Amino acid sequence: MTTTVSAIAATSATAPLTKTTIERRDVGPHDVAFDIKFAGICHSDIHTVKAEWGEPNYPVVAGHELAGVVTEIGSEVTKFKVGDHVGVGCFVDSCRECEQCKAGLQQYCTGEGGMIGTYNATGKDGTPTYGGYSQATVVDENYVLNIPDSIPLDKAAPLLCAGVTLFSPLTHWGAGPGKKVAIIGLGGLGHVGVKLAHAMGAEVTVLSQSLKKMEDGLRLGANEYYATSDPDTFTKLAGKFDLILNTVSANLDMGAYIGLLAIDGTLVELGAPEQPLEVPFFPLAGGRRSLSGSMIGGIPETQEMLDFCAEHDVTPEIEVISADYINEAYERVLASDVRYRFVIDTATL
Ligand code: NAP
Ligand code: ZN
Ligand code: ZN
C-alpha cells in the first residue's frame, strides 16, 4: 500500500516540467510522514534535471529543500510528533555505519553507494527517491530536521540546502570576528552565506559580476561589495581574505581569485563547474594558500544551522511561486534573475 501524491516532474533534459503523481511508501516504524508545504528551487535541481551532471533517472521529481508539517509518525519514532514543523535536505538516508556517518557527516558517507539523495537515487526499499516538488513525503526520522517555530516554513525551506552548504564551510574554516570572508556570487547560496557570515561576526565582502545587486548585498550584511567585471577589483583586494567561498557554477579564473587570499587563506569551491578547475601554481604556492571544496552538511550541523538561524534571525530572501511558474522560475535562475531563492508553494499543486 502506498499513498498517491501530486508532484512536478521532469521527463527529459529538454521538456518543460509538468504536473504528475507519485507514490509514497507507507509509514514504517522509524518513519515520519509530513505534508510538504514549501520546496526551494536549488540550482542543483536544474543541473540534475537538464542532465548536466550525467543522465538522471527520469522522471525526476527534484527538490531537496523541503519544509512541512508532520502528519503521521511510526510506532518507534521518538524525535517528532504530529504537527511538528520539519525539514529535509539533500539526502534521506546513508549507510549509518561508516566513520563519516557515525561522526554525523552523512554527506561524506563512504558506505556502499554513499548517501541516498532526496531525489534521483534509489531508496533502501529499492524504489526511486522523489524530492520536494510534491505534496507529501515519508522519511526516516534520523534524516528529518526540526524547524524552529520562529522560522516561517517558506523561509525555512532554502536553509535545508543553501543554508547548510554555507554554514558548514563557514564554521569549519572558523568564520567569526577578525576574519575576512568573501562570497563569490550573490544568488541562492551566496545571499544566505552573506547573512550567516555576518551573523557569525566576520567581515564580509561580496564579489558579484556587477554592482546591480549592491544595495541588497549591503542590506543583507556585507561590509563591502565589488564587481568582478572590473579588473581593478583584483588589484585592490589582492591578498585580503582569510576565506573565500565560491558559489558560482561557471568556470572562473581561479588564479585571479586565489590571488585575493591572504597567506594561508582558503578558497572553498561550492558551485559545481562543468569543466575541471584550472589552478595555476604560483598564486597558490606563493602564499601557502589552499583550495578546497565542501558539500552540503551532515544532519547534526544542519540542525545546528537551523537553531543558529532562529537565534540570530537569519532567513533567506525568497520569492514564493505557484507550481505553474516552475519553468519560468528555472529560466530566471539560469539568467541570474532571482532575488534570491524561488520557493514553491506546494498547495498550488
Ligand atoms: P544561483 O542562485 O543561480 O546563484 C549562482 C550565482 O552565481 C548567480 O546569482 C550569480 O551571482 C553567479 N553567476 C552566475 N553565472 C555566472 C557567471 N557566468 N560568471 C560569474 N558568476 C556567475 O545558484 P545556487 O542555487 O546558489 O547554486 C550555485 C551553485 O552551487 C550551483 O552550481 C549548485 O549546483 C551548487 N551547489 C553546491 C552545493 C554544495 O554542496 N557544494 C550545494 C548546493 C548548490 P552574481 O550575479 O552575484 O554574480
Ligand atoms: Zn541544493
Ligand atoms: Zn556511511
Automatic annotation (TrEMBL):
<dbReference type="Pfam" id="PF00107">
    <property type="entry name" value="ADH_zinc_N"/>
</dbReference>
<dbReference type="GO" id="GO:0008106">
    <property type="term" value="F:alcohol dehydrogenase (NADP+) activity"/>
</dbReference>
<dbReference type="GO" id="GO:0008270">
    <property type="term" value="F:zinc ion binding"/>
</dbReference>
<dbReference type="InterPro" id="IPR047109">
    <property type="entry name" value="CAD-like"/>
</dbReference>
<comment type="similarity">
    <text>Belongs to the zinc-containing alcohol dehydrogenase family.</text>
</comment>
<keyword id="KW-0479">Metal-binding</keyword>
<dbReference type="InterPro" id="IPR013154">
    <property type="entry name" value="ADH-like_N"/>
</dbReference>
<feature type="domain" description="Enoyl reductase (ER)">
    <location>
        <begin position="9"/>
        <end position="344"/>
    </location>
</feature>
<dbReference type="Pfam" id="PF08240">
    <property type="entry name" value="ADH_N"/>
</dbReference>
<dbReference type="InterPro" id="IPR013149">
    <property type="entry name" value="ADH-like_C"/>
</dbReference>
<dbReference type="InterPro" id="IPR002328">
    <property type="entry name" value="ADH_Zn_CS"/>
</dbReference>
<dbReference type="InterPro" id="IPR020843">
    <property type="entry name" value="ER"/>
</dbReference>
<keyword id="KW-0862">Zinc</keyword>
<protein>
    <recommendedName>
        <fullName>alcohol dehydrogenase (NADP(+))</fullName>
        <ecNumber>1.1.1.2</ecNumber>
    </recommendedName>
</protein>
<comment type="function">
    <text>Prefers aldehydes over alcohols.</text>
</comment>
<keyword id="KW-0560">Oxidoreductase</keyword>
<dbReference type="InterPro" id="IPR011032">
    <property type="entry name" value="GroES-like_sf"/>
</dbReference>
<dbReference type="InterPro" id="IPR036291">
    <property type="entry name" value="NAD(P)-bd_dom_sf"/>
</dbReference>
